[in-house]
Amino acid sequence: MVFVAVAAGMILINLAFHHAALLVATSSSAVGSHRSDGLVVLLLDLHDHGYTLTGALFGMWLLALGHLAYQSSLFPRVLSTLLIVSLIVGWLVGVGWPGLPTVVHTTLAPPPVADLWLVAYLVTKGAPVPRPDRLAPAVVSA
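Structure (tokenized):
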């Protein structure tokens, strides 16, 4: 859960770079006009790299979630393995081919898609409810 909280905070900070690029691009008084193009590109590059770092933290959340799902018997092993493998493949594709188009990157490395498969499984099948006869009896102390 810590990974998700830190990633959410990083996304909010990362949006500041996007907003700063918009401000520099639309106002001519902030920076000289001959310097503003380079500054806008720099700020947008920082914004892009911020999403890459945030994606790594989001992937750590999928790693923990996939491990917990794999250890429990409530989810199919294939689904939990998909969560873990999608993190590794997503990171390798993101770092190995940073200029890859977004559509191809999403097709090859789908951590959000794996997360959606987990949600779809829970909505359609649900987690199995333990039978009352398999529950441990309550210990009553006198």
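DSSP finds five helices and no strands in the chain. The chain has a mean pLDDT of 76.
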